[in-house]
UniProtKB/TrEMBL annotation:
Matches recorded under Gene3D superfamilies: NAD(P)-binding Rossmann-like Domain (3.40.50.720)
UniProt entry keywords in alphabetical sequence: NAD, Oxidoreductase
Pfam families assigned to the protein according to its UniProt record, in alphabetical order: UDPG_MGDP_dh, UDPG_MGDP_dh_C, UDPG_MGDP_dh_N
The protein's name in its UniProt record: Nucleotide sugar dehydrogenase
Every UDP-glucose/GDP-mannose dehydrogenase C-terminal domain range: 336-422
Species, as recorded: Mycolicibacterium litorale
NCBIfam families: NDP-sugDHase
GO biological process assignments: polysaccharide biosynthetic process
Amino acid sequence: MPITYELPALDAVTDTAQPLQRVGIVGLGYVGLPTALAIAESGVPVLGCDISEARIAAIKSRQVDLLHDKLVSLDRLLESDLLDFTTELTGLSAVDTVLICVPTPVDSHLVPDLTALRAACATVVDAARPGQAIVLTSTTYVGCTRELLVEPLGRRGLVAGRDVFVAFSPERIDPGSPAHLPEQTPRVVGGVTQACATRATQTLIRSAASVHQVSSPEAAELTKLLENTFRAVNIALANEFSDVANNFEVDVMEVISAAATKPYGFMPFRPGPGVGGHCIPCDPHYLLWQLKATKLPSPVTEAAMASIASRPQAVVNRAQELLADSGRPLAGSRILVVGVAYKPAVADVRESPALHIIEELHRRGAEVAFTDAMVDSVWTSSGQLVRENDPAQQDWDLVIAHTLHPTADHAWLATVPLLLDAAYGLPELPQRRVL
């Protein structure tokens, strides 16, 4: 049966394991760095490893996308003996537990790009020593933990559950959200054996509210795919209901808020301009990619991902429609995109729908600019764009609200003549239109 462990029960959970001496984190991106901070804050020394010297330098100079409290924590930990960063991965053989936190994107054909994951796992396997625990946290396909860790370790003569302890525990990081810090969020872990799960729990409990054990790495791998596929399906449904509501001249946000008063059987999702980041636009494709080999259909997931992918195009079509209603063609119009980060309160533009929107507007002949309080510049197929620092002082034929950062001043949007609120966050402005 699944077991959930909480921090007060740590001694009972780990009474057969040696006390943690040091933890190694491979990959210091939006998952690895917060995880490193959370573990170090618990009093366990952490060795953070990343192949990018620029990333290490950015962390040491505090030029990283962290909440203010975590930046304060980073300052304190860098001055202590609890946190060290390096580009040299040879030191991994000296740590008790290794957490692999590297990115797992998809390529332009929506095929999983396993380059970083394979390289990281190979390095960890080469450095592994008897008694060490290895936990994969990167989102991946079902069976990956055995294929990339257990089997190559076995070829080295290290048997999982006897010589080394291998588990999968999917990351649960919500960038920019103070309500979902790692140490306040439960983790799922699936060990190759119970001993593997116990050793992984010993580390993970220090960076999580609780640890819920499942029966195998495969169960934990599929858990992550379900979590983000669930979100993708419901976001696609919210977008669809936005179109439905417009058809009936009803405010979709009013409908969603009303439905959310139901205390059971409903979870609110908001429509928007699309989905970005390296979770929802990517993770379900790991499942779809794997299922192709078995010829098992997944029509709901396929339809949801197709719908999400088409959303930026819908934004551009709506922009063209609004301009036409005001007597202007899209070609030659001056359009401003407000916010290009993939979500509020982060500076991350990976897979951001804004990039696709800007590229398509350019392709149709529009003059496009952007403003974003957290992003200085972006690269698109049309080249580099630098943000407009004072957009209120210019005339725009259309403004598209894409990402509304909570700390940014959006009061000036009340003065623009034509506003497409693709973020559904400006209901008080009378001139706003939605998708």
